[in-house]
Design goal:
Layout: E1 8-9, E2 14-15, E3 21-24, H1 30-42, E4 47-48, H2 50-53, H3 60-70, E5 73-76, H4 80-84, H5 86-92
Parallel strand pairs: 3-4, 3-5
Antiparallel strand pairs: 1-2
Amino acid sequence: MKRYNLRSSSRFGKRAFVAQVFISYFRRDKDFVQKLVVSLVAEKREVWLDEKDIEVTAEWLKEIFANIEAADNFLFVISPESVASANTRSDQTA
């Protein structure tokens, strides 16, 4: 995934990638989400996706919450599985 226009975020205390759109989804919806990301990037939107944007050494949940707070928009992909998922429910409360 390409990243467009890195913007500075004082919240992180360093130059960091700040997305226009944070996508929360259930893993079984991955194929749909990949198509969605391609469409958003084609429209020059900055997209944050946990699969691509979490460093190997990062604390996963802390990184998720920080990027939800930093993103301009939060997109929750609704499916029966995502509604029932404990992880996606925690994304919504961040």
